[in-house]
Structures are given as structure tokens and as C-alpha cells.
Please model this.
Amino acid sequence: MTWSQIIITIFTSVLASSGLWAFLGSRLDRRLERHSAEKDLLLGIAHMELVFYGMQYIERGCISKDEYDTLQDLYKPYKKLGGNGSGTKIMNEVEKLPLKEG
Model:
């Protein structure tokens, strides 16, 4: 048996071992959990900002172009990440507001 055959045998044995795949699977699970927690945190922060500023503009009765653009820049990724409900409801009300000059 040559060294190359021995190396190939060891390599294929390691790849076929269930321990390797279990290790890689557990790392993937932890990574997915972290990703989910980060997504939830980002959605929560975006929701809080949308509601806070959106309600201020609604109570004021108008919104500037810059404020509207900033809120839209926050809302688009919020919606793309799966946010909806009250954040969308607030944005629908904000979109009805007249633009204030200056």
C-alpha cells in the first residue's frame, strides 16, 4: 500500500464519519440561532424607531421630505426582514401626511 492510498483512505474515512457531520451540523445550528436572534433584534429596533418617529410625524400632522426619506430607508429593510403589523400601519398613515416646506 502506498502513502497516497493510505492518505486517501484516511481522508475518505474522516469524510464518511458521522462525528464530523455532527460537529459541522452543530456549528451550523448555532450560527442559524445567532442569525435569527440578530434578525429579531434588528426587527425590534427598526419597529421601535418606525413607531416612535412615525407617531411624532402623525401627531404633528406633516412630514419633511428628509424625514420621509429617512423613514422609508428604515422601513424597506424592516419589511424585507419580515416586519409588518403596526410598523406597516404606521407607514401607511405617514404616507398620507402632507410634506412640509423647508
Remarks:
- Residues 18-60 form the longest helix (43 residues).
- The chain has a mean pLDDT of 83.
